[in-house]
Amino acid sequence: MATGDEIIGELLEIPEDGEEAGRLSYALLREIFGGYSPESLQSLMDSDKDFLVDSASWIFSELGSKSSPYLQSIAFLLSHRSHRARFWAIEAVHAAAGPGDGRIIAQAFSLIADPTPQVRWEVMNFLSGATTAQLESSLPYLRDGSLSSPVSWLASISDNHEADKEIKNKLSSSSSIDRRIAVAAAARSPSGRRPLLEYAATLSDPEVQNFAESALRTMN
Question: How many C-beta atoms lie closer than 10 Å to residue 112's C-beta?
Answer without folding.
Answer: 24
